[in-house]
Amino acid sequence: MSKAFTRESDDDLDDVPVRPLGAELPPGVKNYMTPEGAARLRDELERVTRLERPAIVAGGDARALRDLDRRIAFLARRIEALEVIDPARQPTERALFGATVTVRDDEERERNYRLVGVDEAAPSRGDVSWQSPIARALLGAEVGDVVTVKSPRGEEELEVLRVRYVTEARADETEVRADEPLTVRLRGEAGET
């Protein structure tokens, strides 16, 4: 029988290229995340370690096990480099990590961007990595500032209309608006503090 039709040993799978599991962090850079993002990352590691891995081991699929072990190692490295930044503790005058920033573009369209960690980014929801061009332009901006974002389509100017810090796990929201002084609102309370 020709060698082309024989199954190679599973040891040969080590040479098979594996697609990247996530955006790489520059050397020495912490993996900044919101508390919610960090909890999701830890939950994923626990789920794949306690539920998925035993099922794959029982099924005897060496390739799937190797892929999952790579995922587990990746998640463990990400958690090891984790630095949780609580948006509720950020100063509210500037757009910093964890801020939700409302901007207006040249065509008068308003958009919201939440500045989050690389493992939390979901651009379709407006969650952008703090390393992305839009987040780099917004970091440090205040209400009323105009920032320039460089993208493949060219440069775009955005006016910062609002900076707020919202947390998923808590019911409080801190917000700065262009048309009113700093307010802190606790959902469920009748008044402002």
UniProtKB/TrEMBL annotation:
A biological process from GO: regulation of DNA-templated transcription elongation
Pfam family, one: GreA_GreB
GO MF, one annotated term: DNA binding
Listed InterPro entries: GreA/GreB_C_sf, TF_GreA/GreB_CS, Tscrpt_elong_fac_GreA/B_C, Tscrpt_elong_fac_GreA/B_fam, Tscrpt_elong_fac_GreA/B_N_sf
Stretches for region Disordered: 1-34
Span of domain Transcription elongation factor GreA/GreB C-terminal: 91-165
Protein known as: Gramicidin S synthase
Organism for this UniProt entry: Chondromyces crocatus
Lineage: Bacteria, Pseudomonadati, Myxococcota, Polyangia, Polyangiales
